[in-house]
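Structure request: ABC-type polar-amino-acid transporter, Planosporangium mesophilum.
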Amino acid sequence: MTADPVLSCQAVRKTFHGRPVLHGLDLDVAEHEVVVLIGASGSGKSTLLRCVNLLETVDDGAILLDGEEITDPRHDADRVRARIGMVFQSYNLFPHLTVLDNVTLAPVRVHRVHKAEARRRALELLDRVGLADRAGEYPDRLSGGQQQRVAIVRALASSPRLILLDEVTSALDPELVGEVLALIAELKREGTTMLIATHEMGFARQVADRVCFLDGGRIVEQGPPSRVLSEPSQPRTRQFLQRIVEAGRL
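Returned structure:
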């Protein structure tokens, strides 16, 4: 990498109830890069994303955003999160707010964007994903795929430096997965910096600049998806991908 990374995780450790989940993990994400985390459930993918967004505190090591150590306890976590967009597998939309209000909430309340400008930007983004006509609806009136697209738009509305996506298709019916993956592929083409945890190997192959295989809280192997997913060098990666093949998911 020729420039400082947008995100740098340095020797990050995290333990839950005495059980290590992240073991001195190191990872850099460059500007405009899409890094996809793969691995079995419990390998540390979601925990890493939650640590980056300061939803979990690290036990050791450091996480830097644009060279600034955000894991320093003197930092205001909410101010850090204002620079990071996170999309969860369960959407996490506010059920009592309309689609438009969900999307404009952070720009208006956190970033102090004028309400009219926030509304204009929100409608523009919703139109891009084919949901401008649903701006006045409440989330429970939308399909799962529509709700997840709204959640992604909400993350984009504040123009974050980094977007984290945590298994964003796992709660969707198979026929709805494609519309969400298509939106993420479009964001990649636009140069959005993303760190993604997924079980969708075909998606990882399509959008990743780099795939990282996590096992036991460590990055065991990483590289271009064409190599890691087709010709992995590590036995643990090969075993994981073989199970994926047997399950018909690769």
